[in-house]
């Protein structure tokens, strides 16, 4: 099994809608039909191979309900079995060492104690907070959050939702990570899992059943939606309203979560005191931060070009501030937004602050740890490995 096996491609009419409506490529009908026919046949598709940002959006446009993203991902990553040697280092859920394992090892003793507690299943509970890869780097503030005090926390440092392997085109590695995750989740006696990271929510609630063909034995909800439930129930209110105007930047996977999630983001931002502004490309036509395009080609200029287009839209919207829901988008955009005079807000931190928490270690404060970890592996950026991805040696 692999990515494209999630669909019956005999149903494809080669209408080209997915590539015609793509917010990045916006092909004409004849070109779109020709390029998708090439993808189906396993032949080169020049513009897709050169320009696709692997942002999931095309899955929204297929009139037959197929998933073009998975077919494109399989073709793009199969055209050359040589991948950046740095790729397995970014993937969590594999045996150490890896980027996240190095980051966790660099945390304070007290923070590592928190992670050790989170590795064990909590007692039988209604709602439990699942803290993913990036969230564990700011574990102190999550553990001591007053907003989240009633949520037991669970987040073993050796498991992952599988996003990084999946989007890197490493299906076999994704399978290995997913099976390990499912085994650990089988230890839980809970009614609902609240996902700290909306990417975890997408992969556990969407990709897992739609592509991998398995479901979890409990309900899932994103932390954004959980916070909105508390606000609408009158159990939570902004005690420190944020008071700024920001353009809503939606991460690429939000198109998989659909209209209810789009609206939940806007409602909870406004409840926290943010005046939201819409960008030209939004919701199921939103432009991505570009990070996922690395699976297509290891070229940072691809990311920068895509980001500059996004920044132009922010400026045209009349603000210089962006509200970002994804930690990956936040870290990627934070590295360049200052050059454009744009401030990027990581909204999970902002919301917790608005509802009463003190944030002692903001996500941006972990950038020095990330830079140091990556610097140690810098030589890997110039090497290639073949799929399936090997485990990085210490």
Short summary:
The protein is of the alpha/beta class and about 400 residues long.
Short key terms for the protein model shown above:
Rossmann fold, 11% strand, disordered C terminus, alpha/beta, 18 helices, 394 residues, single chain, four-stranded parallel beta sheet, 3 domains
How does this structure look, described?
It is a single chain. The chain is an alpha/beta fold and 394 residues long. It folds into 3 domains: 3-79, no CATH class; 84-232 and 366-377, no CATH class; 244-354, Rossmann fold. Helix content is 43%, strand content 11%. It is built from 18 helices and 10 strands. The chain has helices spanning 17-20, 29-41, 46-51, 68-78, 87-90, 99-105, 109-118, 139-143, 163-167, 171-185, 198-212, 223-232, 254-257, 259-271, 300-316, 327-337, 347-354, 367-376, and strands at residues 82-84, 125-130, 153-154, 190-195, 219-222, 244-249, 274-277, 321-324, 343-346, 384-386. The strands form 3 sheets. A 4-stranded parallel β-sheet has the order 3-2-4-5. The protein has a 4-stranded parallel β-sheet with strand order 7-6-8-9, with helices on both faces. Helix 12 packs across helix 14.
- Residue-averaged pLDDT: 92
By secondary-structure content and strand pairing, the structural class works out as alpha/beta
- The count of DSSP E runs of length 2 or more, i.e. the number of strands, is 10
Q: Nearest-angstrom radius of gyration?
A: 20 Å
> Whole-Å distance between the termini?
31 Å
- Element order: H for helix, E for strand: HHHHEHHHEHEHHEHEHEHHEHEHEHHE
- Counting DSSP H or I runs of 4 or more residues, the number of helices is 18
Poorly predicted ranges (pLDDT <50, ≥5 residues)?
389-394
How big a fraction of the residues is strand? 5-15%
């Amino acid at each position: 099994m692999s990515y494209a096996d999630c669909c019956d491609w005999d149903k494809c009419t080669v209408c080209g809608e997915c590539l015609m409506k793509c917010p990045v490529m916006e092909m004409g009908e004849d070109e779109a039909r020709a390029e998708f026919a090439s993808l189906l046949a396993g032949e080169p598709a020049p513009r897709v191979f050169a320009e696709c940002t692997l942002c999931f959006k095309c899955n929204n446009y297929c009139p037959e309900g197929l998933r073009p993203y998975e077919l494109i991902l399989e073709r793009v990553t199969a055209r050359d079995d040589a991948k950046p040697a740095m790729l397995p280092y970014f993937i969590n859920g594999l045996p150490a060492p890896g980027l996240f394992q190095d980051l966790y090892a660099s945390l304070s003793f007290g923070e590592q104690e928190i992670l050790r507690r989170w590795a064990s299943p909590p007692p039988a509970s209604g709602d439990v907070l699942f803290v993913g890869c990036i969230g564990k780097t700011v574990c102190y503030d999550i553990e001591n959050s007053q907003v989240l005090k009633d949520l037991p926390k669970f987040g073993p440092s050796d498991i992952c939702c599988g996003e990084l392997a999946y989007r890197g085109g490493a299906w076999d590695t994704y399978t290995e990570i997913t099976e390990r995750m499912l085994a650990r989740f089988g230890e839980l006696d809970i009614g609902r899992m609240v996902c700290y990271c909306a990417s975890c929510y997408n992969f556990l609630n969407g990709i897992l059943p739609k592509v991998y063909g398995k479901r979890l034995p409990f309900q899932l909800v994103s932390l954004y939606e959980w916070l909105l439930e508390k606000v609408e129930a009158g159990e939570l209110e902004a005690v420190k309203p944020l008071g700024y105007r920001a353009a809503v930047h939606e991460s690429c996977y939000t198109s998989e979560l659909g209209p209810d999630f789009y609206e939940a983001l806007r409602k909870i931002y406004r409840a926290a005191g943010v005046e939201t502004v819409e960008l030209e490309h939004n919701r199921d036509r939103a432009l991505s931060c570009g990070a996922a395009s690395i699976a297509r080609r290891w070229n940072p200029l691809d990311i920068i070009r895509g980001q500059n287009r996004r920044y132009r839209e922010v400026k045209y919207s009349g603000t210089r501030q962006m509200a970002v829901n994804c930690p990956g988008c936040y870290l990627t955009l934070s590295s360049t937004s200052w050059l454009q005079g744009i401030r990027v807000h990581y909204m999970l931190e902002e919301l917790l602050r608005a509802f009463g928490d003190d944030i002692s270690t903001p996500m941006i404060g972990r950038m020095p740890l990330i830079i140091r970890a990556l610097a140690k592996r810098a030589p890997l950026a110039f090497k290639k490995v073949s799929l399936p991805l090997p485990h990085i040696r210490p």
